[in-house]
Amino acid sequence: MKVLSRVFRGKFLALIQDAMERGKIQVPDSEAKLRDPVRWRALVTKLYAQEWVVYAKPPFGGPESVLKYLARYTHRIAISNERLIALKDGRVTFGWKDYANDNRRRTMTLDATEFIRRFLLHELPSGFVRIRHYGFLANTGRTKNLEICRGLLPQPLPPAPPAVDAQDPSEPAQPGDISDEPGRRCPVCQRGTLHFVRELFPLERREQQKLPGIDSS
Q1: How many CB atoms lie within 10 A of CB 170?
Q2: What single-letter DSSP state applies at residue 36?
Q3: 37-49 vs 2-21: helix axis angle to the nearest 10?
Q4: Residues 188-206: what's their mean pLDDT?
Q5: How many C-alpha atoms does 115 have within 13 Å on its Cβ side?
Q6: Is position 30 within any domain?
Q7: What sign results for the dihedral spanned by CA atoms 62, 63, 64, 67?
Q8: Domain that holds residue 10
Q9: 200 lies in a domain?
Q10: Helix (H, G, I), strand (E, B), or coil: what is residue 111?
């Protein structure tokens, strides 16, 4: 939590400093002394030295629920076409759900410019793209469709991986176990099996042996 508070402090004060330099902050007359650049820098330095308190409430459903919630924003746009009701006289009418009142369906009408402003608040920053799933992975029936797909597969579902017991890592593998072969046992747990795929050489050796490069795209 201390790391989070310091990151938040740094980003917040950096934005404040940038806004001050661009004249976006109006200092009231009661604090006119802060208009002096020297006094302002002294205040910012003092704030950097102060430990900030940042409270992040643990999610009720655990990390999985947070990821599921955030995943919606990587797939969906700000508003679907079905919620757009009318465009008349430069005003947009759309539907919304009132979660505070039993999820009642309501309508709202805004000026087109205000509607566009709110819409653009949900646009992703430059360099980010949204993820779209189609077909049986579409969000509307993904769970049911996956169950049907699994039922139609000609092969049985793969068995769940066996639970790792609390055996001492130094205990040798059982006779006949493939991990008992020299060079095949995991150097960490001493129980898993290593499968050789390809040896990756440093750049110098790769050039000397004229090995093809590896495309990671």
Answers
A1: 6
A2: S
A3: 170
A4: 64
A5: 18
A6: yes
A7: positive
A8: 2-49
A9: no
A10: strand
Q: Give domain status of residue 89, yes or no.
A: no
Whole-angstrom Cα distance, residue 98 to residue 94?
13
Q: Are strands 104-111 and 91-98 parallel, antiparallel or unpaired?
A: antiparallel
Q: Pinpoint the alpha helices (H) of the chain.
A: 2-21, 37-49, 63-75, 112-120, 142-152, 203-208
What does the buried/exposed string (b/e) look like for 102-134 if buried means 16 or more CB atoms within 10 Å of the residue's CB? eeeeeeeeeeeeebeeeeeeeeeeeeeeeeeee
Collect all residues with Cβ–Cβ distance below 8 Å to 65 and sequence separation of at least 6. Answer: 59
The pTM of this model reads 0.35
Cα R_g (the chain), whole angstroms: 29
Q: Convert the pLDDT of each residue in 148-195 to its tens digit.
A: 888 888 756 656 555 544 444 444 444 444 444 555 677 777 777 777
| DSSP label at residue 138 | S
Residue 93 CA to residue 85 CA, distance in Å, equals: 5
Domain assignment present for residue 39? The answer is yes
Phi/psi region, residue 194 (left: phi>0; alpha: psi -120 to 50; beta: rest), is beta
High-pLDDT (> 70) share of the chain, % = 71
**The tokens of 54 are what?**
């940042």
d(CA 129, CA 120): 14
Tokens in use for 99?
């979660």
Number of domains composing the chain: 1
Mapped onto helix, strand or coil, the DSSP state of residue 158 is coil
